[in-house]
Structures
1.
Amino acid sequence: MSDRAGPLLIGLDLGTTALKCAAYSEDGSLVASSTKEYELLTPTANVVEVHPFTYWNEFSSAIHDLLAEPGVDTAQIAAIGISAQGETLIPVHANGTPTRNAIVWLDGRATEESDELADRFDEKQFYEVTGQPSMLPTWPAAKILWLARREANLFDQTARFLLIEDYFLWRLTGEYVSEGSLLTSTCYWDFRTKLWWPEMLEALGIDQSRLPAIVEPGVAVGKLLPDVALELGLPASTTVCTGALDQACGAIGVGTVGPGRFSENTGAAVALCATLREARLDPERRMPCHYHGVPDTYMFHTFTSGGVVLRWYRDQFGDAERSVASVSGRDAYDLLVEEAGTIAPGSEGLVLIPHLQGAMAPESNANARGAVVGLNLRHGRAHVARAMLESIAFVVRRNVEVLEDLGLEIPEIRALGGGARSRLWKQIEADVTKRPVLTTRQPDAATLGAAILAGVGLGRYVSAQEAAEEMVQIDETFEPRAGNCGLYDETYAIYKQTYEALCPVFDSLAKVHA
């Protein structure tokens, strides 16, 4: 924490099930933070919604909590930047009020519409224009077509289709604007020309008048509306700035702002970002390419299986750890990782495949599932816990290898997310990937990245690169240990062999349990 005098920059991170507000000084020191959770509405398996007012009400509550924290001088607050979940769609009336609940990015109802759009557009053209290897029900293009077909009255009443960052910018300033890092995965925005894609808009039955204006990340949109400033208790002079996709903000928050920088965010999933000077595509369409939160910069960005396997293990088999955690005040995850630390590298021959809900990039295999191979009577719970940590490191290495095949140099890995708190896990990652793994002092990279963009929009910094140099503070560097690298080379080879060997089994299981 910091009580340093000077302007304060607020980073707002709009997550899937929670939002966080954090105030930073200009040197990147955290002054205070507040987190609020909200419930997802899931009436059926494929439907995931949230009422937009829920987001706003929790944001208002978080801001008030933040202002009550010691060291926060409300008069010092100068700007707000936003880190936002991607693909969450909020249709609104002409006066900006929502026509229906937000359709959250996890929502998968638009399967038929997704298939129809996939048939309509050539795969190569689709990738060239959007940077996304394939059409999915997740993308807002499919969701808009679903609304046109299934909720025609509400579709007709919708004046604008907004993403969650756009909605907040309107609530805060009265302006309808959006930016490229969030627009990339809508699949109706051309990520090279930075203009709407006319052919896709025609397929969806909408025109540009029903979409926001396009600006760059880190741009001042306007001052707080007077009534909003009064409601939130913030200075009316507070400048509201465009931010970026949450993973782009996270990358910025650990300094992944220039070519050659690579970051991984280990949470329920592993999100990987490799910064590029220009838009690039993977000839094998394994890697999506996104517009970055740094203007005129791009990134290979993908999700893949991550810490959800550890959460599953904690929930299903971690009664002891949860019990100890409840009376000791410690985190059950930390206790599981401590157990894993008692086991030697390689987990004594135990290899785990972590794809509980399918494999994402670069395998892109929806039928993939989890597996434990090599189990014998010597193995216990701690072996399984260690094998889980190693399996996620193998996933990171697999993606690093694909990026290297595409000609990228990855000299180091910058780590963020919950997994970055574990020194053991980051050391395993360094040993498996044979690269230094760096962590930062700031506990939340996404809010810091949003604050950095707010600082740029405010004019306190010339660029996100300059701001990151000033504000991102490196904490630890985990160097690869030569004695472990050779063993992990062998174990990683077995991991890949195991996955390939099990693919026919995964396909058979999918058919049996379809």
2.
Amino acid sequence: MLKIKRFLIFSAFLAIYNIVNAQNERYLNPIFNEVEVSNITPLASNYTILNWIATQGQANTLKQPLVARFYSPKGDTVKNRPLVIYIHTGNFFPYPANGSCSGTMLDSSNVEIANRLAKLGYVVAVINYRQGWNPYDPNELIRRYFLINAAYRGVQDISTYVRYFRRSVDQLGNPHGIDPNKITVWGQGTGGYLSLASAYLNQYPEIFNTADPNKFKLPTTNGYIPMVFEKYNGNIDGTGADSIGKYAIVDALYNSISKLKIGDTLCSPNHIGYSSDFALCVNMGGALGDSAWMNKGEMPLISYHVPTDPFAPCKTNVLNVPTSLGPQPVVEVTGSCDLAIRADGFGNNDVFKKILPAKDKYGAANKSGNLGYYQFSNTPDDSSAPWEWAASDNPPSTCNQNPVTAKLYIDTIVGYFIPRACVALNLPCANTVTSNQDLVSNLDIPVTIAPNPAESSVRIETGDLTIIKEVYLYDINGRMVSVNAVNNTSYLLNRPSGLPQGLYTIGLKFEKGLMYKKVVFK
């Protein structure tokens, strides 16, 4: 009987240890072996101009489904997981008409990164967005007009997806098992333009908040008119559009520029009543329409860029769009190099300072010198997207067909993302990658810990009878050593067997928040 009791006690301890260890490893290491991949699922719809382009202006716009393919850890029981909305590349044109090696939801790099994140414990939604613009117009201003409108539609689409996920938790029973306050928008290539604009272009008037006030305006005989006009395009979130029904494109001057048919519709609201806000932005290439769109106090940014990218400049320079006629210059934009400097200067990425160097080997190898920007130099064939490879049977000869090399870059991309997402999204893994000396509590609760220093145990008590919910013990590297349920005003914390002498941090969880205290075991 005694042996059975000891076995049961040991089994219970082992189960608790495994739970704690899994909590520490989740989002840090791939703790899942298999990924569940959904069918392509429609989540909303909005009007695209692709039909108009395909018929050379003879047809009207049509509604296009906004769809997602979900990647989630198979067998996972956690239901408040962080979500990554992943946006593919494609030059705002369908593949292969876009003249590129990629541009679909099923691009090899999309699938690879989504699978890796899901094995870490994330839910990933690889999404589509409305495409279509005129890169061939000989007038650079008209090309700029079409491109800013394509980007504007893309921002509306990303906002629509975010609102869907918030609504799915509130009204639909949380079918995807996500935490709506831990959403990352991650854009690759053209998707990088959309993730950046969605993060930092928050209001319609900001479009024109540029050093050149006419940057996104068109000259007419009566002055300048905006390239994006809310009356026709809908608001920036896509939650309201005067163009629905009785208004639409009726202004003769505006119609003569857009070439769209009189009475056409450009925006249809979806999932009204929910926030379009998300928590973290990631871009792999791409750029922001203007550096002035990023301001102090906005969300953290993780960027990956090849500084010699001939299309999306890493600094502030002219964007060139690849087409079948060669690169077409469009407008001056700001890429990762300069955005990283701006984000660091504003303190937007200060949260990354909490990461311990020992927990950030990819950050230690980074040459950019910035908190959130990883610089890829000397890439194969000077590729601006070394993480991509073409998986089709007959790709163009200029496309990378070597998945081994591309996956090495993805190793770095995911490895660099992991600790930064831990702290930016306040995930459980933040306890493992940060120094607890940086964790601050503003709780005014009298707590005594004695004796301190201690040999075998310490008594923790609250002087005002505040209930302690849980007690955590961390080592000097921020690794969680133990977690204990308390639900009392006092607790005797025993020194775990074999714990070396040294300085440790005790974390106290209360109803109102967390508090941290130092303790020495001698």
